[in-house]
Design a protein that fits this description.
Chain lengths: 104, 104, 104, 104, 104
């Protein structure tokens, strides 16, 4: 899985019927230090992620292994909202109330 | 899914029978800011996209999850025409009548 | 699918039985302008492509969706010979008799 | 498979139910010489790997071919802990007691 | 498929049971000219390849389409030993007795 940050939303009214009703989010890749990295994807959201939140997304056929995406033409799905991670024993990121403005 | 812009069409008369009758479009990748990026693919069109339109395409086995592409040797499919997207609350792109000259 | 040009052939007598009898071609990636790009693959040929011809190849599990490659350990297949393509209304490439010296 | 080194752990309480109970580790890619390389993934651990250990991870649909990950939205799994490797007859890496502080 | 050269072996005693008994080889990518290129993988050997030999490896789900790798958490398999290849009519590589010191 790749670590990313939700940076925006995308609207597409004309789409394959397999994607009707799916929320599409723009996710920018982040480095292991939590900084913005190059690369981004448009992913289906299966966990109710909000803008600003750190997330994990899965790609390829694995992106179709959620309720929201099974048998759909979807190759990227957000399947987790990240609470924290550490590297070498040091905490690099911890979610605060300021993150994830849309989070319910 | 990856964000792209339809930039052209491709004709191939001699092809695997699984691709007979499919429209093949050239799609250039675009950045999160809507600018041209490096990289492009040739994708089957499942939604009636036209030149100039911003689209989403799915890759890999997920590209075979549409009516047009099921069980075909196709690894890229346009599965949505993009109407708009925003980043950090700012609208980055909104489709206008000037886009998508072939759109029906 | 990716646009490529057949640049050579490869011989491998000792191989997985799933690939016995398959023609293996070297395909160099080309840019949207038709120029040589970085990157190449060795692909199974499912359409009778010849050296010099512009082709499309599919990768991953989609490469196994042809008669020649079903259930084989093959992750790249040439599934179309390109006749022409255009970008922004301008013809970029059109196949001539000089291309594809082996084409039948 | 790709060679990596476990550098940290990640906590995500809100995730697709298919990932409940899975340990998520940060794995940095390493070069053939055993040095840190660019690129990292977040992988499910199927073998009890610990921080500092050299591991192999599998990606894509192959990442779902373990007990821990079958039918889950998981595209990267640690499926082996590396004991040693050699290149050109020279031993490049051999696991010592100092490696893998969490290893059981 | 990707062209590579076997440069070493890897030992991993603690691994997913699906990989028990499999030989793991380090394969460095080579260019179309036969020179070392960047990138390498650890691949399961399905054809009895030896150090120094030029091989083809398949990636992703296609890597599971051999007897040795079916339903295993394996995303790279050596499925052919290369005898020769040519580009533009010129022979670039031909296997000699000096190559493949372990080859049987």
């Amino acid at each position: 899985m790749i670590l990313g940050r939700v940076v925006g939303t995308l609207v597409a009214n004309r789409k394959d019927e397999g994607l009707l009703g799916q929320k599409l989010l723009l996710v920018r890749n982040v480095s292991v230090d939590g900084d913005d990295a190059s690369g981004f994807v448009v992913a289906v959201d299966s966990v109710g992620a909000g803008e600003g939140e750190m997330v994990l997304y899965a790609s390829g056929s694995s992106a179709r292994q959620t309720e929201a995406t099974r048998d759909r033409p979807c190759d990227a799905v957000i399947m987790a909202i990240v609470d924290s991670w550490d590297v070498g024993g040091d905490e690099i990121y911890r979610k605060t109330d300021a993150d994830g403005e849309w989070a319910s």
